[in-house]
Input
Amino acid sequence: MSEIDKNTQPLLEITGLKKHYPIEAGIAKKQVGLVKAVDDVTLSIRRNEVLGVVGESGCGKTTLGRTILRIIEPTEGSIKFHFDGKEIDFISLDKKALRGMRRHIQMIFQNPYTSLNPRMTIFDIVAEPMRLAGDYTEDEISDRVRDLIGKVGLEVKHLNRYPHAFSGGQRQRIGIARALALGPRFVVADEAVSALDVSIQAQILNLLQELKEEYDLTYMFIAHNLSVVEHISDRVCVMYLGRVAELSETEELFYHPMHPYTEALLSAIPVADPTVKNERIVMPGEVGNAANLPSGCCFHPRCRYAQECCRKECPPLREAAPGHFVACHFADSLKLNGIGELKIKN
Output
């Protein structure tokens, strides 16, 4: 494969991915329904990009990330990684092969207070993946841990301390060092800054970007804070009730949204200027029930543009503009507000 082909080919291709949880009732545990946490997701992730995944709580963001890594086993679908000119069918890997792939795919967890073992020192936490891999000597592990701790902005003299001695931001740095221990190529960052103060969030975001360039990383960055996603992401995937509602380059999506749900989310972004006000779009009701999805378009009960066809037909995810995918019957005719048009002078 030529170098050009390597750069243009996606690192990861997901097709028709589903994760359904059965609902059981009675003594016989008879299945009476399904919770469709992830429902027919298709997307690709390019090499060395940051794909932001956003949506309200309960939309399936975290389940999607964990299913891609097979922390949660998928119900149906295809996950293919392209490494060193090879296509790896991730779904078909057995336990031994999957363990070998773990070095290439890692996760940064949301809560830095619960994701670190309180009984292990920082050295042992970062070293654990290398010890489990079994490919490193203790000297190599020691050198690698010291190097990573320095890269994430912590001091080597603190390696023998325990997690309780560190702040939330420092703990998240430790989690990042652990995720990078085996030199992964793809990292899922699950709400990696949501539990941190705003000033610490900026530091962690800048750190993630620096590490991305230094180690040639590809991120799936899961978040609900759109301002954070705009800052770090190359493309953005908007999810609603386990499905992709919109997928586009970041600037295109923020200034020219094509899905009513995206428009409503963008209207909630605060503007740090007292002379400017947002035209806030308030969506009625709550996020739908994944165990009892609405007919047709799952967003239609909350959509102010919904028509009769929206209640009957589920819109497919289609390319409405070059590189801009949307699941809406009226994406071509609606003129929705992006963040550029939301700034209305008093």
